[in-house]
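QUALITY CONTROL LOG
STEP: pairwise intake check
CHECKER ROLE: data steward
CRITERIA: each record must contain a sequence immediately followed by its structure tokens, with no blank fields

ENTRY 1 OF 2
RESULT FIELD BELOW
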Amino acid sequence: MINYHFVWCPKYRKQILKDEIELALKDIIKTTCLTKNWEILELEVMSDHVHLFLSVSPYDSPTGIIKVIKGVSAKRLYSMFPLLKQELRKGSIWSPSYYVGTAGNVSSEIIKRYIQEQKT
């Protein structure tokens, strides 16, 4: 198993991931990860970015993981909240870039604590 810490943002770093959109996004990510057999170690949705700490099989590439999560979540969020397209000028909901880092057992707790403390 490999642990990945992903961070990604909506286009233009817009602060749109709030309230019902935040809850819907968390549910979408949890469902997607469950179907792919990826274990969520920590998840936090901020108004303008997302932190996701996953434990996955070594056969799953970081690029493939983020492509699935961003693709599925964009499609479902747009269908649930059609006004998002107007907010984002009818483009993609997510910025094309993202951060990914790997973590061993020693730094896993530090990453978890960092993500948990994002809203405080």
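ENTRY 2 OF 2
RESULT FIELD BELOW
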Amino acid sequence: MTDKARDVTLLGLGNILLSDDGVGVHVARQLASSPDSPPGLRAIDGGNLGFRLMDVLKQSDSVLIVDAARLDAAPGAMRVLERRELCGHVARGRRMSAHEAGLLDLLTLAQIDGWTPRRLALLGIEPQRIDWGEQLSETLARQLPLACRAAIDIVLSWQAAA
């Protein structure tokens, strides 16, 4: 097994000025500085997603995206969509995240450029509030450690299967 096969990029998306919309960024920032993060995990603050992330993605064998997502569930609920489900969901036109359109464009452009990750998934987290504010809602602030743990568990399972 090569080291590259164990490398995982966690891309946290969102706008931290819109309260819970920034939950993906909060997860990425926390994992970037956490001693609990597994070796080979590269946590990136992707912010409001732009094509500037193309080079980051193209260097990645496996990509886990963390973002606020409308799951039709209670605030703080989490759901993992693996590549097939994620791509099918986006293709059907039902948007879970404000960042899906940009993400789909970015992934499509990367694929045209010859990059396809071995593993790709979205960890979606149901927001409680998306409104002006730099803090997560109390509900999502309480869920942040669980979201980080969920992301670590996904990374570890991918690394074990590499």
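INTAKE CHECK: passed for both entries
DESCRIPTIVE NOTE, ENTRY 2: Residues 3-161 form a domain with the Rossmann fold fold (CATH 3.40.50.1450).
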